[in-house]
Amino acid sequence: MVSIRARRTCGTAFARKSSHGFTLIELLVVLAILTLLAGLVGPRVLGQLGGAKSKTAGVQIADLDKSLELFKLDVGRYPTTEEGLDALVKKPGSVNGWTGPYLKGGVPTDPWGHPYRYANPGPNGGIEILSLGADSAPGGEGENADIRNTN
User: Fold this and answer.
1) Per-residue pLDDT tens for 90-103?
2) What's the CA gap between 57 and 147, in Å, rounded?
3) Residues in a beta bridge with 118
4) pTM of the full predicted structure?
């Protein structure tokens, strides 16, 4: 009976001793799997983040466009290029009928931290609100593409 009890104790001690951690090979396999997952998933996540910034710029431009429409309803015209988008938050000197501010929190910058460009008249005759994208240069593709209102 003593020998059976000794075997059980010895077996339990052996089982406890072998379950105290991972081997180096097990750790390397887990690291390899995590590296593969990061390599496959990482670029897709970063691509979605970039697309989100472009969509955010489009939404902000649409909001600025609506605020400019409210300015026009009150004043009878859009702000001049010189007055710029600041006319939506501060009354231009010689304007009658201004009931702003038309934007809460001031004029936003684009998602890349650059100010939106405003022109009246724009290249197509109407007003233009423009973000030059991530590179802050005209033209480009993807994140560097220009984003503008549709007027």
Assistant:
1) 998 878 889 879 98
2) 7
3) 129
4) 0.65
pLDDT digits (tens, 9 = 90+) for 76-90: 999 999 999 999 999
Joined together, the tokens standing for residue 46 give 């970063």
The residue type at 75 = V
Tokens encoding 144: 């560097």
Distance separating alpha carbons of residues 31 and 34, to the nearest angstrom: 5
Give the pair of three-digit tokens for residue 30. Answer: 């887990």
> Assign residue 22 a region: left if phi > 0, alpha if psi is -120 to 50, beta otherwise?
beta
Contacts of 137 (CB under 8 A, 6+ apart): 144
Closest among 114, 107, 109, 108 to 135, alpha carbons compared = 114
Angle 80-98-86 from CA coordinates, rounded to 5°: 45
Query: Any idea which of 2-11, 40-49, 112-121 has the lowest mean pLDDT?
Result: 2-11
Residue 134 tokens, joined: 């991530």
